[in-house]
Each structure stands twice: as structure tokens, then as C-alpha cells.
């Protein structure tokens, strides 16, 4: 019996061929492949502008920069997210202010955000947690009239939909991740998408030291034009090697989503019959890509979350604790937020686990996971 992993990227011969071609071309840094990846991503996600960067964390930084968030501002974020969401405001001198999430979706809502707003709030980072689309329209209805920018953190959201369109399509600005734990991967990588040409232009410059002439353009000319550095920028570039892999991955996106949703449907069918287990599901306003297929464990299931994790591990199934909470990490001890300050986030984080789900998952592997969930419930019929 071999281990069932929680996630596995789906990479193959086509990605290898794309990489070989880029290496043979002699140009491996940001260049034509990045431009082509951006154009493809913008088309697939129905975004007006797309700017590729080195990770979603750097995309978050640039999004806050172009949105004009500065020293002394406040940015409302969920604590219930990967820690990069909470860290990014500090990069521009702002302070993250934690808001609680909805107990069903795990996402911010207009009601939870409203309680966290102050005179100093300049932006909100709304996450499509685990791929579940956030109710963006309600957030924008709250924030737009107040001049607060809503940044959609769609790190996990490629292939999810909101009111029939890809997530992020209705955002003024959104950020994406291509880490191997996400839906499509470039090893490391990220993207900023935005409806605003001025923000896209500035993000494009900031990612490359705010040079007036891009490196690709300089190297493309024999007598390189003199460049200027218009403001203090960064090196947040993606490489053409990464982008070439990303282009192939995007071609597979709909197939990946279709397979993930098939596997999720099978899980849900069985889990709905197990008392005390509640699986993540599509919200009324969209569809999830099931980037994280999480299950909430409660009474009368005989094991608690950690007990179930240990039970799964005992049969070589690698599940994961649910989403973390940033406010309970040592890095945020200075905020002085004691237990119970974000009750729903804490509850979800402590009682959920993420089940294995990946494109190549076999029927046999999934049956093993389902059998272990059932045997953990004390029922005999599936124990083998
Ligand atoms: C993974 C993740 C990030 C960070 O993405 P990187 O590409 O690894 O920097 C940010 N926000 C959320 C919600 C994530 O899940």
C-alpha cells in the first residue's frame, strides 16, 4: 500500500517539451513566454490586464502598492488564510486588521468586514478560500462608496466561478498563485489581474525595478536605449521557463477542474451519509474548483479532527489540518488577540481537515480515503 498524498501537481511531457524549447531559444528570463502567459491568463480568467510576478505574495505587495495603500493605513484581512494574506499590508507600512469569516464558506462577508472598518481602512483583501468564491459584489457594495479598494486574493481560485464568470473577473484587482499546492503551477509564480490600465502599467514597472525600458527590450536592441528608474521598485519577475510551463498548465485547466469536481462529488456523496462530517460545497453564487476539499469534524463523529488525521495517517493517507489562523501565530502576538477573538475562524481552523484530491487520483486511492472516514466513524461495513 503506498501513501495517498494530499495534493500532487499534474505535470508531464508537454511541460518538459515547453521547457526544452525555452532553453534552446537562449532566452530564459522574463520575455516572450511571460508576455504570452499573461495574455492567455487574461483571456482564460476574463481579466482586462494581467501582470506575471514571482509569487502571489509579491503580487499582493504590488496590488497594495498600486492601490495606494500607505504607512498608517489599515487593511482588513481574514485571519483564516495562508499567512501571506495577513503579511502583505505590513510590506507597505499598513496594518492588517483581522475580520472573522462565514461559518459555511470560510470567507469574509460584508457583515464581518463592516465590523472591522475604521476611518483608516484603505483596502480589504478578500480571499476565495480553498477555491470557494467570495461574495464579492456585497463586499464591493460596502467598500466602493467608501473609497476602499477590494483586492481579491484568488491564490486558490483559478477555475472557480462567481455568478457564471471566472472569479476575479469582477474585481478591480486580483492576485493569483502558481505554487504547486494550487490549481495550476509554474513551480513558484504569481499574477496580478486588474481592470485598470494605470494600475497594470505601474505593477509592470514596479516588478522590474521601475525601469523605464524593460530588460527584454534592452537586450532586443543592439544600441540599448538609456533607461531611467522612475521610483523605487523590486525584482518580482517571473522567468520565461516558469511562464512556458504555465502556458501548458492553463491549457489543462478545464480538464483539471472537471476531474477535481468529479472526485469531489464522489467524496460528498459518501460523506453526506456520515454523521458529524460536513464537507465544503458550492455556495449559491458560484462554483468551487475544490482546490481544498475540506471537511468539518464535529459531534457525533467519534474522533475529533486530530484524531481523524491520525487515523488517516495510520493507513498511509496524508490529509492536512484545515486553514491556519494568522492571529494565533507568534508573528501576530503583538496584536494581543486572545482565544475567542475571531470565534468562527478559530472553530473552522480547529475542526477542519483537507482530504487528498488531485488530478491523477485513482478510484482505488479515493476508495481508501472514504473507507478510512467510514471506519473512523465506528461503522464496520467498510473496514478491510
Ligand atoms: C498560497 C496562498 C498565498 C501565497 O501564494 P504564494 O504564491 O506561495 O506566494 C496567498 N494567499 C492565499 C490565500 C494562498 O492560499
Explain this structure.
- Helices cover 36% and strands 15% of the residues.
- It folds into 2 domains: 13-251, Type I PLP-dependent aspartate aminotransferase-like (Major domain) (Aspartate Aminotransferase, domain 2); 253-376, Aspartate Aminotransferase, domain 1 (Alpha-Beta Complex), CATH 3.90.1150.
- The two termini are 13 Å apart.
- The relative contact order is 0.17.
- It is an alpha/beta fold and 384 residues long.
- The chain has a 7-stranded mixed beta sheet, sandwiched between helices.
- A hairpin with a 2-residue loop joins strand 6 (161-162) and strand 7 (165-166).
- The structure holds pyridoxal-5'-phosphate.
- Residues 55-57, 81-82, 84-85, 127, 153, 155-156, 177, 179, 190 line the site of pyridoxal-5'-phosphate.
- The site of pyridoxal-5'-phosphate has 14 residues, from helix 3 and helix 4.
- Pfam families: DegT_DnrJ_EryC1.
- This is Glutamine--scyllo-inositol aminotransferase.
- Belongs to the DegT/DnrJ/EryC1 family.
- Keywords: Aminotransferase, Pyridoxal phosphate, Transferase.
